[in-house]
Design goal:
Elements: H1 25-48, H2 66-71, E1 99-104, E2 107-112, H3 120-128, E3 137-141, E4 146-147, E5 150-151, E6 166-168, E7 182-193, E8 198-210, E9 216-227, H4 240-255, H5 275-281, E10 288-291, H6 297-313, H7 327-338, H8 346-371, H9 381-391
Parallel strand pairs: 2-10, 3-9, 3-10
Antiparallel strand pairs: 1-2, 4-5, 6-7, 7-8, 8-9
Helix pairs in contact: 1-7, 4-5, 5-6, 6-7, 6-8, 8-9
Region (Disordered): 255-278
Family: Belongs to the protein-tyrosine phosphatase family. Non-receptor class subfamily.
Domain Tyrosine specific protein phosphatases: 289-350
Length: 397
């Protein structure tokens, strides 16, 4: 089936809509099916070669044991043993947390499950470790604490500045073993960000511990906590929430700078903020902490969009070679090699294509307007969405 062609900018020398964004829904569906088969094969191989002391583990092996099972929110979602975050703990304490380091190009992330009531200690222990993430820490929460009457994530942070700091409880350890990691999380400010439709909290993490020689040590870290609650599990943001998600991605990149301004409005006059600048100025080496409930579907989709939008804004999706390359399918495959089930549902997979197509069309429209002597705006996302739908007429189901 020949993919329908979407009109692109006619300005000489300007980039055209890439072939991977002109694919039919049927073609995208087939690629998702291929990715699912690859994942099944990895999981099967990991099951056949478990991580133990008997034989070398597979790249796809998972850990076993009661301590691991008890810390997982879902029995079928866990990190690969060869690619997991290891907590810094004393002898006799498990170093396990359901979290995976993710790297795409130079950009780094940590995808993790939403904390349980018994894993708040593990979550903040991970954030406190300078070897894992530096201050300021950016945490993006893509789930409500409860959806459809079920807990999706424990309430692991204070809701208002009037609340007392959240005390981090000691880990449950074996008799005779003491967990010396202690701390508290205070809320310093909270505001509603209209563009990203998010609750933006500034938290202060204070922890106490001991050095190798037994000396007490106190540490503080600033945390930017972004809560986006308009994304139901297994589904995709709809309507204006789609544009809000793009704003959230940009805001998280903006805050993940060594010394970012307090607000985006301070970056440029009149409140303007360059998306390209935010995507490129972010501290790529300092991972953003991304979680939903399981840490795979919405989290994987967010990470894929952040990475692909950074490529688009820096021109790296223009004039791809070979021309039939599909960086979206490649990115999802790379994500799933680092954490199972990333971009979990087919609707989420199609959503990545839809968003990239919309943003690319807006970019082309801005370039055409600028070349024609008009005002080079970024384009209205809703107009771009209508263009994208019009260009995809006749797609297979």
């Amino acid at each position: 089936m020949t993919a329908p062609t979407t009109p692109a900018a006619s300005v000489a020398g300007s980039p055209q809509l890439p072939a991977f964004l002109q694919q039919s829904k049927a073609e995208i569906h087939n690629k998702f099916v291929d990715l699912e088969w690859q994942q099944r094969n990895r999981l099967l191989q990991g099951t056949q070669q478990p991580a133990n002391d008997v034989a070398p583990p597979s790249q796809w092996s998972r850990l076993t044991g009661e301590a691991v099972t008890a810390r997982n929110r879902y029995m079928n979602v866990e990190p690969y043993a060869q690619n997991r975050i290891k907590l810094k703990v004393a002898d006799g304490i498990s170093d396990y947390i359901n979290a995976s380091p993710i790297q795409l190009g130079k950009r780094r992330y940590i995808a993790t499950q939403g904390p349980k009531d018994t894993s708040v200690n593990h979550f903040y222990r991970m954030l406190a470790d300078e070897g894992i993430v530096a201050s300021p820490v950016v945490v993006v929460m893509l789930t409500q604490t409860h959806e459809a009457g079920r807990e999706k994530c424990f309430q692991y942070y204070p809701l208002s500045v009037e609340e007392s700091p959240l005390v981090i409880q000691p880990d449950e350890v074996e008799e005779g073993v003491e967990d010396v990691f202690k701390g508290e999380v205070g809320l310093e400010s909270m505001e509603e960000d209209a563009k990203s439709r998010s609750e933006v909290r500034r938290l202060r993490l204070r922890t106490e511990g001991t050095t190798a020689d037994g000396q007490a040590v106190t540490q503080e870290k600033e945390i930017h906590h972004l809560l986006f609650s308009a994304w139901p599990d297994f589904l995709i943001p709809e309507g204006d929430d789609r544009q809000a998600l793009i704003e959230l991605i940009q805001l998280s990149a903006h805050l993940n700078q060594p010394s970012p301004p307090t607000t985006k409005s301070q970056t440029q006059p009149n409140g303007a903020s360059s998306a390209a600048n935010d995507y490129t100025a972010t501290d790529q080496a300092n991972p953003r902490i991304i979680h939903c409930s399981a840490g795979v579907g919405r989290s994987g989709t967010f990470i894929a969009l952040d990475y692909l939008l950074s490529l688009m804004h820096t021109g790296q999706l223009d004039n791809l070679q070979p021309a039939d390359r599909d960086p979206i399918a490649e990115t999802v495959d790379l994500l799933r090699q680092q954490r199972m089930m990333m971009v979990q549902g087919e609707a989420q997979f199609h959503f990545v294509y839809d968003v990239l197509r919309e943003r690319y069309l807006a970019r082309l429209a801005a370039a055409e307007a600028g070349a024609g002597g008009g005002v080079a705006a970024h384009g209205d996302a809703r107009d771009a969405r209508r263009d994208a739908v019009g260009g995809a007429a006749g797609d297979g189901a």
